[in-house]
What does this fold into?
Amino acid sequence: PHGRLHLAEDVVAFEFEYPNAGSPLAAPLVTDFTRRTQIMARYRMNDLMELADGPCSCGSPLQAVARIEGRQDDVFHFVSGEGVPVMVTPDVLRNAVVDADRAITTFHIAQTGPAAVRLSLAADLPARAAMAATAALAAAIRRAGGPEVELKLKAGVDVPFDRKLRRVERVWKDRP
It folds into this structure.
């Protein structure tokens, strides 16, 4: 009722792994003590979330979640100009494209190399919207501390019908 998610700490034990030192984002490891047939001990979830600093205004004693940033395996990994590893979360990338132009209704963003990104947009999208999305995506990566990226624009978005559509995906699997 107060706009916050809470962790189910009353039935599940939570531990957290932080992908980078000093990062506010954490990946939960869960242990469920209520299961009777299949054990779930220290199961690593794929979500990246930021935990709330203090209690929720609803009065719940359960840990509140400030925000969920997306899937950990879809975080883009870059190296800054100073050689520092940089993570850019799916929400940052998604919001950059969606907020660039109201005409954008479907898209796919993929990291294809250490400093290479492919942005796929609808083939019939106006050129001004495609240019705005490209500029906004590159700017979002730079604001996050990432490098100048080679950004390729692709006309047409392949929508898979046999699985969930992932709008942001790290195709390149080597990490800096």
